[in-house]
């Protein structure tokens, strides 16, 4: 089946004939019938179905759901790493992921290597020594570098490293990292997967042998997803393919518009020929994604002014929903990084991150234009 069919298809409930997954809003399950599920923190039928859905879309052996994207990341890393192990990740990774590695994991005794942005620096580091875990975002947040998952996957296999890819920005529609050599793929399902800015959830999919331990850690840490949120995520997942088709198309047109705008200094979008990873993006992505980052002419005040003057687009920190959102990473998503760290990854005071939704692209372009005209 194609992705759009996989996203929509649900198993019919044998007892009732229900055509959608029921919400099993219960804490426990009566024995002997309930022996499989026992307690909802450990296993719940609605949550289990969501895990099965992401496994099918990612063509993985198994999938599971978590209380958030960061819950998926921290639980996965804690189940795999132990003191004296090593992990490498690029510096231009989501701020909270970076903080977890550089602060918590390092203090816990894990050898943490933070690589400079870009494929060349990262691959050079990989070839210099073996790492227990390789962790990347296939499209980085918010500078949108496109990592060469295929090449990194080959090195990971040669070195017997566990290769984890955060594919939140790409989604299974634009890339399937497991087919390119990754062992585990992670999503903040709060973003494009659920797609309506109304849930907090995380997902992981990959090899059964690895995820067995991840599941045990999830049960212990309590980073489990609750059933109603799982239901909403399954419902959102049904329109993932058609949403991403529209979002990919809208974002590409907006990036081209911004590239020629006199009030814009620089545009970051993998679908533009000016992007440093354009050739990698063309080779490894089915679509260039729904996030466009750009620097306005001026500084922090000018960037904030643009964000304050949009009318259709919503100024907010999240991304990946049907509504277009704009944010200022330096004071929002990446505020936990020091000024030096932000500068090193390209998060300048003039940078804005636009999450493109499914609105009419002409309305979005008109809104951006009038907001940009508000700065001198």
Automatic annotation (TrEMBL):
This is Cystathionine gamma-synthase. PANTHER family: CYSTATHIONINE BETA-LYASE, TRANS-SULFURATION ENZYME FAMILY MEMBER. GO terms for molecular function: cysteine-S-conjugate beta-lyase activity; pyridoxal phosphate binding. Keywords: Lyase, Pyridoxal phosphate. GO terms for cellular component: cytoplasm. GO terms for biological process: methionine biosynthetic process; transsulfuration. Gene3D superfamilies: Aspartate Aminotransferase, domain 1 (3.90.1150.10), Type I PLP-dependent aspartate aminotransferase-like (Major domain) (3.40.640.10).
């Amino acid at each position: 089946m194609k992705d759009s069919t996989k996203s929509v298809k649900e198993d019919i409930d044998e007892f009732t004939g229900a055509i959608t997954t029921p919400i099993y809003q219960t804490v426990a399950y009566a024995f002997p019938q309930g022996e499989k599920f026992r307690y909802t923190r450990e296993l719940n039928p609605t949550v289990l179905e969501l895990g099965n859905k992401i496994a099918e879309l990612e063509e993985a052996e198994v999938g599971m759901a978590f209380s958030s994207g960061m819950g998926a990341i921290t639980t996965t890393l804690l189940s795999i790493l132990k003191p004296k192990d090593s992990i490498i990740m690029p510096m231009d990774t989501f701020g909270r992921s970076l903080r977890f590695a550089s602060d918590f994991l390092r203090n816990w005794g894990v050898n943490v290597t933070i690589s400079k942005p870009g494929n060349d620096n990262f691959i050079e580091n990989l070839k210099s020594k073996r790492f227990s875990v390789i962790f990347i975002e296939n499209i980085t947040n918010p500078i949108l570098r496109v990592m060469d998952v295929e090449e990194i996957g080959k090195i990971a296999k040669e070195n017997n490293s566990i290769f984890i890819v955060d594919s939140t920005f790409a989604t299974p529609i634009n890339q399937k990292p497991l087919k390119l050599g990754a062992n585990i793929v992670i999503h903040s399902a709060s973003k494009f997967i659920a797609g309506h800015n109304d849930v907090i959830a995380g997902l992981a999919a990959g090899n059964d042998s690895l995820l067995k331990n991840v599941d045990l850690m999830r049960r212990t840490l309590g980073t489990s997803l609750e059933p109603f949120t799982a239901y909403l995520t399954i419902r959102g997942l049904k329109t993932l393919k058609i949403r991403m088709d529209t979002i990919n198309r809208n974002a590409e047109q907006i990036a081209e518009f911004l590239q020629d705008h006199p009030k814009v200094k620089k545009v970051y979008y993998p679908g533009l020929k000016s992007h440093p990873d354009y050739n990698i993006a063309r080779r490894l992505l089915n679509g260039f994604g729904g996030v466009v980052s750009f620097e306005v002419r001026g500084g922090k005040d000018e960037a904030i002014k643009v964000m304050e003057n949009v009318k259709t687009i919503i100024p907010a920190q999240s991304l990946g929903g049907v509504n277009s959102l704009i944010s200022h990473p330096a004071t929002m998503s990446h505020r936990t990084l020091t000024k030096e760290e932000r500068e090193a990854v390209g998060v300048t005071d003039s940078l804005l991150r636009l999450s493109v939704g499914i609105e009419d692209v002409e309305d979005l372009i008109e809104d951006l234009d009038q907001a940009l005209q508000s700065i001198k």
